[in-house]
Design goal:
single chain, three-stranded parallel sheet, two-stranded antiparallel sheet
């Protein structure tokens, strides 16, 4: 295949317990297995979107997530679009799940998703 799209939950909520999310080295410990796996896949394009299990990503800059935690992804999408082989991909990780990654109130989801290009 040419394109791999991974739509979240590449970590487990339990993996984040006790992790100091202010320390990049601690964050890398949680994401390193997935990032290594991603690097070993034969796809030319590797698009990753965070999910509700990526609780340690809350409040992190998407560029930091991509460049420091998931450098083997060709694209990390967080309310953004990328173009690959003439196709558009948009990634939005938001959920109404409580106490999870990218949680927000159900009433706010419409605002988040209103940004999805038509």
């Amino acid at each position: 295949g040419d394109v791999l799209v991974h739509c979240g939950d590449f970590t487990n909520k339990e993996n984040w317990k006790g992790v100091d999310v202010t320390k990049p080295s601690a964050l890398r410990l949680v994401t390193s297995d997935f990032n290594e796996w991603l690097g070993d896949t034969p796809y030319k394009y590797k698009i990753v979107i965070g999910g509700n299990h990526e609780v340690g990503f809350n409040g992190l800059d998407p560029k930091f997530i991509h460049h420091e935690l998931l450098p083997n992804a060709t694209h990390y999408l967080q309310d953004t679009t990328c173009q690959v082989l003439g196709l558009s991909f948009y990634g939005s990780p938001w959920t109404s799940s409580r106490k999870m990654g990218f949680s927000c109130q159900r009433k706010d989801l419409g605002n988040k998703w209103a940004n999805i290009p038509k």
